[in-house]
Amino acid sequence: MAEKFDLNEREVWDGNYAASQALRQAQVDVVAAYPITPSTPIVENYGGYVANGYVDGEFVMVESEHAAMSGCVGASAAGGRVATATSSQGFALMAEVLYQASGMRLPIVLNVVNRALASPLNVSGDHSDMYLGRDSGWIQMDAFNAQEAYDLTLCAFKIAENHSVRLPVMMHQDGFTTSHTAQNVYPLTDEAASEFIGQIVPVDDMLDFSRPVTYGAQTESDWHFEHKIKQHKALMDSRPIIDDVYAEFEKITGRAYNRVESYLMEDADVAIVALGTTVETARVAAQQLRDEEGIKAGVVAIRCFRPFPFDQVREVLENVKCISVLDRSSPAGAMGAFFNEVSAALYTTSSRPLVTNFIYGLGGRDFSIDEAKRIFKEQQAHADAGHITTDIQQFSGLRGAHLGFFQTKRG
Fold first, then answer.
1. Model's pTM, two decimal places?
2. Burial 39-67 (b: 16+ CB within 10 A, else e)
3. Which residues contact 247 (CB under 8 A, 6 or more apart)?
4. Cα distance between residue 188 and residue 8, in whole Å
5. pLDDT of residue 3
Protein backbone atom coordinates (compact mmCIF):
# COMPACT_ATOMS: atom_id res chain seq x y z
CA MET A 1 0.00 0.00 0.00
CA ALA A 2 1.10 3.57 -0.69
CA GLU A 3 2.29 5.66 2.24
CA LYS A 4 0.07 8.46 3.55
CA PHE A 5 0.74 11.94 2.18
CA ASP A 6 -0.11 14.56 4.81
CA LEU A 7 -2.12 17.57 3.58
CA ASN A 8 -3.09 20.81 5.26
CA GLU A 9 -6.61 22.20 5.08
CA ARG A 10 -5.18 24.92 2.84
CA GLU A 11 -2.17 24.50 0.58
CA VAL A 12 -0.32 26.97 -1.66
CA TRP A 13 0.10 25.19 -4.96
CA ASP A 14 0.58 26.15 -8.58
CA GLY A 15 -1.59 24.54 -11.22
CA ASN A 16 0.96 21.88 -12.13
CA TYR A 17 1.45 20.76 -8.54
CA ALA A 18 -2.32 20.79 -7.98
CA ALA A 19 -2.86 18.50 -10.98
CA SER A 20 -0.06 16.16 -9.88
CA GLN A 21 -1.60 15.85 -6.42
CA ALA A 22 -4.87 14.84 -8.03
CA LEU A 23 -3.01 12.09 -9.94
CA ARG A 24 -1.47 10.91 -6.68
CA GLN A 25 -4.80 10.82 -4.89
CA ALA A 26 -6.35 8.97 -7.82
CA GLN A 27 -3.63 6.33 -7.36
CA VAL A 28 -2.99 6.20 -11.10
CA ASP A 29 -1.65 2.82 -12.16
CA VAL A 30 0.44 4.02 -15.11
CA VAL A 31 1.78 7.38 -16.23
CA ALA A 32 3.70 7.13 -19.52
CA ALA A 33 5.31 10.48 -20.19
CA TYR A 34 7.79 12.59 -22.12
CA PRO A 35 8.47 16.01 -20.56
CA ILE A 36 7.67 19.32 -22.26
CA THR A 37 7.40 22.86 -20.92
CA PRO A 38 5.23 24.01 -19.21
CA SER A 39 3.60 20.69 -18.24
CA THR A 40 6.76 18.86 -17.10
CA PRO A 41 6.22 19.25 -13.30
CA ILE A 42 2.96 17.26 -13.43
CA VAL A 43 4.60 14.03 -14.56
CA GLU A 44 7.86 14.83 -12.77
CA ASN A 45 6.00 15.12 -9.47
CA TYR A 46 4.14 11.87 -10.14
CA GLY A 47 7.48 10.16 -10.71
CA GLY A 48 8.56 11.46 -7.30
CA TYR A 49 5.42 10.10 -5.67
CA VAL A 50 6.17 6.66 -7.14
CA ALA A 51 9.81 6.77 -6.05
CA ASN A 52 8.85 7.80 -2.51
CA GLY A 53 6.15 5.16 -2.12
CA TYR A 54 3.13 7.46 -2.22
CA VAL A 55 1.70 5.73 -5.30
CA ASP A 56 1.43 2.02 -6.10
CA GLY A 57 1.91 2.76 -9.78
CA GLU A 58 4.35 2.77 -12.66
CA PHE A 59 6.10 5.78 -14.17
CA VAL A 60 7.15 4.89 -17.72
CA MET A 61 9.68 7.23 -19.35
CA VAL A 62 9.40 7.05 -23.13
CA GLU A 63 11.15 8.57 -26.14
CA SER A 64 8.42 10.95 -27.37
CA GLU A 65 4.92 12.23 -26.72
CA HIS A 66 3.64 9.92 -29.46
CA ALA A 67 5.09 7.02 -27.47
CA ALA A 68 3.69 8.44 -24.23
CA MET A 69 0.12 8.33 -25.48
CA SER A 70 0.76 4.96 -27.11
CA GLY A 71 1.89 3.62 -23.74
CA CYS A 72 -1.22 5.07 -22.13
CA VAL A 73 -3.41 3.37 -24.74
CA GLY A 74 -1.82 -0.01 -24.01
CA ALA A 75 -2.04 0.37 -20.24
CA SER A 76 -5.66 1.54 -20.39
CA ALA A 77 -6.66 -1.30 -22.73
CA ALA A 78 -5.13 -3.65 -20.17
CA GLY A 79 -7.54 -2.28 -17.55
CA GLY A 80 -5.41 0.24 -15.66
CA ARG A 81 -6.16 3.75 -14.44
CA VAL A 82 -3.96 5.82 -16.73
CA ALA A 83 -2.92 9.46 -17.10
CA THR A 84 -0.23 11.72 -18.55
CA ALA A 85 0.42 15.39 -19.33
CA THR A 86 1.73 17.44 -22.27
CA SER A 87 1.73 20.80 -24.03
CA SER A 88 2.03 22.40 -27.46
CA GLN A 89 4.36 20.52 -29.83
CA GLY A 90 4.18 17.45 -27.62
CA PHE A 91 0.40 17.57 -27.91
CA ALA A 92 0.74 17.89 -31.68
CA LEU A 93 3.00 14.81 -31.75
CA MET A 94 0.39 12.94 -29.71
CA ALA A 95 -2.41 13.88 -32.11
CA GLU A 96 -2.35 10.65 -34.12
CA VAL A 97 -2.75 8.53 -31.01
CA LEU A 98 -5.44 10.77 -29.47
CA TYR A 99 -7.85 9.52 -32.11
CA GLN A 100 -6.87 5.93 -31.33
CA ALA A 101 -7.59 6.42 -27.63
CA SER A 102 -11.03 7.91 -28.16
CA GLY A 103 -12.00 5.47 -30.91
CA MET A 104 -11.14 2.58 -28.60
CA ARG A 105 -13.20 4.21 -25.81
CA LEU A 106 -10.31 4.23 -23.32
CA PRO A 107 -10.78 6.32 -20.13
CA ILE A 108 -7.36 8.05 -20.15
CA VAL A 109 -6.91 11.42 -18.39
CA LEU A 110 -4.61 13.91 -20.14
CA ASN A 111 -3.55 17.13 -18.41
CA VAL A 112 -2.87 19.68 -21.16
CA VAL A 113 -1.00 22.79 -20.04
CA ASN A 114 -1.90 25.06 -22.92
CA ARG A 115 0.95 26.60 -24.87
CA ALA A 116 1.42 28.19 -28.29
CA LEU A 117 2.23 26.02 -31.29
CA ALA A 118 5.35 26.70 -33.39
CA SER A 119 6.57 28.18 -35.63
CA PRO A 120 7.99 30.58 -34.36
CA LEU A 121 8.92 28.62 -31.25
CA ASN A 122 7.15 29.91 -28.15
CA VAL A 123 6.89 28.35 -24.68
CA SER A 124 4.19 30.66 -23.30
CA GLY A 125 0.48 30.06 -23.07
CA ASP A 126 -2.29 30.33 -25.61
CA HIS A 127 -5.04 27.95 -26.70
CA SER A 128 -3.62 26.67 -30.00
CA ASP A 129 -3.15 23.15 -28.67
CA MET A 130 -6.60 23.08 -27.08
CA TYR A 131 -8.22 23.85 -30.43
CA LEU A 132 -5.99 21.31 -32.18
CA GLY A 133 -7.60 18.59 -30.07
CA ARG A 134 -11.21 19.68 -30.43
CA ASP A 135 -12.16 17.08 -33.05
CA SER A 136 -10.20 14.17 -31.58
CA GLY A 137 -13.17 12.64 -29.76
CA TRP A 138 -12.03 13.51 -26.22
CA ILE A 139 -14.06 15.25 -23.54
CA GLN A 140 -12.33 18.59 -22.89
CA MET A 141 -12.63 20.55 -19.64
CA ASP A 142 -10.97 23.86 -18.80
CA ALA A 143 -9.65 25.17 -15.48
CA PHE A 144 -9.29 28.89 -14.79
CA ASN A 145 -7.03 28.65 -11.73
CA ALA A 146 -5.02 26.19 -9.63
CA GLN A 147 -7.96 25.13 -7.45
CA GLU A 148 -9.90 24.16 -10.53
CA ALA A 149 -6.91 22.33 -12.01
CA TYR A 150 -7.00 20.12 -8.91
CA ASP A 151 -10.77 19.73 -8.68
CA LEU A 152 -11.41 19.03 -12.33
CA THR A 153 -8.60 16.48 -12.61
CA LEU A 154 -10.33 14.49 -9.87
CA CYS A 155 -13.63 14.87 -11.71
CA ALA A 156 -11.99 13.78 -14.97
CA PHE A 157 -11.28 10.28 -13.67
CA LYS A 158 -14.81 9.82 -12.40
CA ILE A 159 -16.28 11.00 -15.71
CA ALA A 160 -13.95 9.03 -17.98
CA GLU A 161 -14.33 5.76 -16.09
CA ASN A 162 -18.12 5.90 -15.86
CA HIS A 163 -19.38 2.88 -17.81
CA SER A 164 -21.94 5.04 -19.59
CA VAL A 165 -19.12 7.28 -20.87
CA ARG A 166 -15.86 5.31 -21.30
CA LEU A 167 -14.14 8.15 -23.13
CA PRO A 168 -10.79 9.87 -22.55
CA VAL A 169 -10.78 13.31 -20.91
CA MET A 170 -8.46 16.28 -21.38
CA MET A 171 -8.10 18.70 -18.48
CA HIS A 172 -6.78 22.06 -19.72
CA GLN A 173 -5.07 24.87 -17.83
CA ASP A 174 -3.25 27.97 -19.10
CA GLY A 175 0.50 27.62 -19.46
CA PHE A 176 2.43 29.61 -16.83
CA THR A 177 -0.54 31.84 -15.94
CA THR A 178 -2.11 28.90 -14.11
CA SER A 179 0.52 26.18 -14.24
CA HIS A 180 3.27 28.22 -12.57
CA THR A 181 1.25 30.64 -10.42
CA ALA A 182 0.95 29.71 -6.73
CA GLN A 183 -2.49 30.19 -5.21
CA ASN A 184 -4.50 28.96 -2.27
CA VAL A 185 -5.85 25.48 -2.93
CA TYR A 186 -8.17 23.57 -0.61
CA PRO A 187 -7.59 19.86 -1.29
CA LEU A 188 -9.61 16.89 -0.20
CA THR A 189 -8.03 14.42 2.17
CA ASP A 190 -6.62 11.34 0.49
CA GLU A 191 -9.48 9.29 1.90
CA ALA A 192 -12.17 11.69 0.64
CA ALA A 193 -10.60 11.94 -2.81
CA SER A 194 -10.33 8.16 -3.09
CA GLU A 195 -13.94 7.71 -2.03
CA PHE A 196 -15.11 10.32 -4.54
CA ILE A 197 -13.26 8.81 -7.50
CA GLY A 198 -13.76 5.19 -6.52
CA GLN A 199 -11.93 2.17 -7.89
CA ILE A 200 -11.65 1.68 -11.61
CA VAL A 201 -13.80 -1.18 -12.90
CA PRO A 202 -12.36 -2.17 -16.28
CA VAL A 203 -14.54 -2.97 -19.27
CA ASP A 204 -13.25 -5.28 -22.00
CA ASP A 205 -9.72 -5.26 -20.57
CA MET A 206 -7.20 -7.21 -22.60
CA LEU A 207 -5.88 -9.06 -19.54
CA ASP A 208 -9.21 -10.80 -19.01
CA PHE A 209 -8.22 -13.99 -20.83
CA SER A 210 -11.60 -15.58 -20.17
CA ARG A 211 -13.17 -13.07 -22.58
CA PRO A 212 -10.82 -12.17 -25.47
CA VAL A 213 -11.37 -8.76 -27.06
CA THR A 214 -9.99 -6.86 -30.04
CA TYR A 215 -8.64 -3.29 -30.01
CA GLY A 216 -7.68 -1.23 -33.05
CA ALA A 217 -9.84 -3.14 -35.53
CA GLN A 218 -10.18 -2.04 -39.16
CA THR A 219 -13.67 -1.16 -40.40
CA GLU A 220 -13.52 0.57 -43.83
CA SER A 221 -16.78 1.63 -45.49
CA ASP A 222 -18.88 -1.25 -44.19
CA TRP A 223 -18.91 -0.14 -40.51
CA HIS A 224 -16.70 2.96 -40.10
CA PHE A 225 -19.59 5.45 -40.36
CA GLU A 226 -21.63 3.65 -37.72
CA HIS A 227 -18.64 3.38 -35.40
CA LYS A 228 -17.89 7.12 -35.53
CA ILE A 229 -21.52 8.11 -35.00
CA LYS A 230 -21.73 5.81 -32.00
CA GLN A 231 -18.62 7.53 -30.65
CA HIS A 232 -20.21 10.94 -31.28
CA LYS A 233 -23.36 9.82 -29.48
CA ALA A 234 -21.29 8.71 -26.50
CA LEU A 235 -19.72 12.17 -26.35
CA MET A 236 -23.10 13.90 -26.48
CA ASP A 237 -24.60 11.47 -23.97
CA SER A 238 -21.78 12.24 -21.53
CA ARG A 239 -23.30 15.65 -20.76
CA PRO A 240 -25.65 14.52 -17.97
CA ILE A 241 -22.89 12.35 -16.49
CA ILE A 242 -20.57 15.38 -16.37
CA ASP A 243 -23.33 17.37 -14.66
CA ASP A 244 -23.89 14.57 -12.13
CA VAL A 245 -20.17 14.36 -11.29
CA TYR A 246 -20.01 18.14 -10.81
CA ALA A 247 -23.06 17.99 -8.54
CA GLU A 248 -21.57 15.17 -6.46
CA PHE A 249 -18.31 17.09 -6.13
CA GLU A 250 -20.20 20.18 -4.94
CA LYS A 251 -21.88 18.14 -2.20
CA ILE A 252 -18.55 17.16 -0.66
CA THR A 253 -16.62 20.41 -1.25
CA GLY A 254 -19.14 23.23 -1.66
CA ARG A 255 -17.42 24.14 -4.94
CA ALA A 256 -19.90 24.27 -7.81
CA TYR A 257 -18.99 23.64 -11.45
CA ASN A 258 -21.12 23.87 -14.58
CA ARG A 259 -20.44 23.11 -18.21
CA VAL A 260 -21.22 26.77 -18.91
CA GLU A 261 -20.34 29.31 -16.21
CA SER A 262 -22.07 32.70 -16.23
CA TYR A 263 -21.29 35.86 -14.27
CA LEU A 264 -23.60 38.90 -14.04
CA MET A 265 -25.62 37.58 -16.97
CA GLU A 266 -29.14 37.99 -15.51
CA ASP A 267 -29.60 41.45 -17.06
CA ALA A 268 -26.51 41.79 -19.25
CA ASP A 269 -26.69 43.86 -22.43
CA VAL A 270 -23.13 43.06 -23.48
CA ALA A 271 -21.01 40.00 -22.80
CA ILE A 272 -17.58 38.51 -23.25
CA VAL A 273 -17.31 34.77 -23.92
CA ALA A 274 -13.92 33.37 -22.99
CA LEU A 275 -11.82 30.45 -21.76
CA GLY A 276 -9.06 30.01 -19.20
CA THR A 277 -7.57 32.68 -16.96
CA THR A 278 -9.07 35.39 -19.18
CA VAL A 279 -12.41 34.61 -17.59
CA GLU A 280 -11.31 35.98 -14.21
CA THR A 281 -9.91 39.15 -15.83
CA ALA A 282 -13.16 39.71 -17.71
CA ARG A 283 -15.22 39.21 -14.54
CA VAL A 284 -13.31 41.95 -12.73
CA ALA A 285 -13.76 44.28 -15.71
CA ALA A 286 -17.50 43.57 -15.91
CA GLN A 287 -18.05 44.35 -12.23
CA GLN A 288 -16.02 47.56 -12.42
CA LEU A 289 -17.94 48.78 -15.48
CA ARG A 290 -21.25 48.14 -13.74
CA ASP A 291 -20.07 50.02 -10.64
CA GLU A 292 -18.36 52.91 -12.41
CA GLU A 293 -20.30 53.47 -15.65
CA GLY A 294 -23.55 51.54 -15.38
CA ILE A 295 -22.75 49.32 -18.35
CA LYS A 296 -24.59 46.03 -17.94
CA ALA A 297 -21.65 43.76 -18.72
CA GLY A 298 -21.50 40.00 -18.13
CA VAL A 299 -19.18 37.08 -18.75
CA VAL A 300 -19.82 33.59 -20.07
CA ALA A 301 -17.14 30.93 -19.67
CA ILE A 302 -17.13 27.53 -21.32
CA ARG A 303 -16.06 24.99 -18.74
CA CYS A 304 -16.63 21.97 -20.97
CA PHE A 305 -15.34 22.68 -24.48
CA ARG A 306 -16.21 19.19 -25.71
CA PRO A 307 -18.93 18.10 -25.96
CA PHE A 308 -19.70 21.70 -26.86
CA PRO A 309 -22.72 22.95 -24.82
CA PHE A 310 -24.69 24.48 -27.70
CA ASP A 311 -28.04 24.54 -25.90
CA GLN A 312 -26.66 26.16 -22.75
CA VAL A 313 -24.67 28.74 -24.70
CA ARG A 314 -27.77 29.68 -26.67
CA GLU A 315 -29.89 29.94 -23.53
CA VAL A 316 -27.49 32.17 -21.59
CA LEU A 317 -26.74 34.51 -24.52
CA GLU A 318 -29.93 34.78 -26.55
CA ASN A 319 -31.17 37.95 -24.82
CA VAL A 320 -27.82 39.78 -24.88
CA LYS A 321 -27.56 42.64 -27.36
CA CYS A 322 -23.91 42.28 -28.35
CA ILE A 323 -21.33 39.59 -27.63
CA SER A 324 -17.59 39.41 -28.13
CA VAL A 325 -16.03 35.96 -28.38
CA LEU A 326 -12.35 35.95 -27.39
CA ASP A 327 -10.08 33.50 -29.23
CA ARG A 328 -6.58 32.90 -27.82
CA SER A 329 -5.35 31.17 -30.96
CA SER A 330 -4.40 32.21 -34.47
CA PRO A 331 -7.43 32.32 -36.78
CA ALA A 332 -5.19 30.87 -39.52
CA GLY A 333 -7.15 32.33 -42.40
CA ALA A 334 -10.63 32.21 -40.90
CA MET A 335 -12.70 33.58 -38.05
CA GLY A 336 -11.62 32.27 -34.65
CA ALA A 337 -12.52 28.65 -33.97
CA PHE A 338 -14.23 29.53 -30.68
CA PHE A 339 -16.14 32.37 -32.39
CA ASN A 340 -17.46 29.95 -34.99
CA GLU A 341 -18.79 27.56 -32.33
CA VAL A 342 -20.53 30.26 -30.29
CA SER A 343 -21.96 31.86 -33.44
CA ALA A 344 -23.32 28.49 -34.56
CA ALA A 345 -25.05 28.06 -31.20
CA LEU A 346 -26.70 31.48 -31.55
CA TYR A 347 -27.64 31.19 -35.23
CA THR A 348 -31.05 29.66 -34.56
CA THR A 349 -32.10 32.15 -31.87
CA SER A 350 -34.93 34.52 -32.80
CA SER A 351 -33.11 37.49 -31.23
CA ARG A 352 -29.88 36.95 -33.22
CA PRO A 353 -27.55 39.06 -31.04
CA LEU A 354 -24.60 40.85 -32.63
CA VAL A 355 -21.37 38.84 -32.35
CA THR A 356 -17.78 40.01 -32.82
CA ASN A 357 -14.46 38.19 -32.62
CA PHE A 358 -11.28 39.31 -30.81
CA ILE A 359 -8.03 37.44 -31.30
CA TYR A 360 -5.82 38.08 -28.27
CA GLY A 361 -2.98 36.87 -26.07
CA LEU A 362 -1.08 34.80 -28.62
CA GLY A 363 2.23 33.45 -27.38
CA GLY A 364 1.48 34.55 -23.82
CA ARG A 365 0.83 38.24 -24.50
CA ASP A 366 -0.92 39.79 -21.51
CA PHE A 367 -4.62 40.58 -21.46
CA SER A 368 -5.49 43.33 -19.00
CA ILE A 369 -8.58 44.47 -17.15
CA ASP A 370 -8.42 47.76 -19.07
CA GLU A 371 -8.42 45.90 -22.38
CA ALA A 372 -11.44 43.86 -21.29
CA LYS A 373 -13.20 47.11 -20.39
CA ARG A 374 -12.41 48.52 -23.83
CA ILE A 375 -13.94 45.47 -25.49
CA PHE A 376 -17.08 45.74 -23.31
CA LYS A 377 -17.44 49.42 -24.20
CA GLU A 378 -17.08 48.68 -27.89
CA GLN A 379 -19.83 46.06 -27.62
CA GLN A 380 -22.02 48.64 -25.90
CA ALA A 381 -21.46 51.01 -28.84
CA HIS A 382 -22.56 48.26 -31.24
CA ALA A 383 -25.64 47.59 -29.10
CA ASP A 384 -26.56 51.30 -29.02
CA ALA A 385 -26.18 51.58 -32.81
CA GLY A 386 -28.09 48.37 -33.48
CA HIS A 387 -25.36 47.04 -35.74
CA ILE A 388 -21.64 46.26 -35.67
CA THR A 389 -19.83 49.56 -36.17
CA THR A 390 -16.28 48.19 -36.52
CA ASP A 391 -14.72 45.19 -38.17
CA ILE A 392 -16.16 41.86 -37.04
CA GLN A 393 -12.74 40.42 -36.27
CA GLN A 394 -10.13 42.46 -34.42
CA PHE A 395 -6.77 41.81 -32.79
CA SER A 396 -6.50 42.87 -29.17
CA GLY A 397 -3.02 43.97 -28.09
CA LEU A 398 -1.42 43.55 -31.52
CA ARG A 399 1.19 46.14 -32.50
CA GLY A 400 0.15 47.70 -35.80
CA ALA A 401 -3.44 46.50 -35.51
CA HIS A 402 -4.65 49.83 -36.88
CA LEU A 403 -3.45 48.80 -40.35
CA GLY A 404 -6.38 47.88 -42.57
CA PHE A 405 -5.01 44.54 -43.77
CA PHE A 406 -5.12 43.25 -40.18
CA GLN A 407 -8.91 43.45 -40.11
CA THR A 408 -11.73 41.20 -41.25
CA LYS A 409 -14.21 43.55 -42.90
CA ARG A 410 -17.96 43.50 -42.47
CA GLY A 411 -19.82 42.07 -45.42
1. 0.96
2. bbbbbebbbebbeeebbebebbebeebbb
3. none
4. 9
5. 84
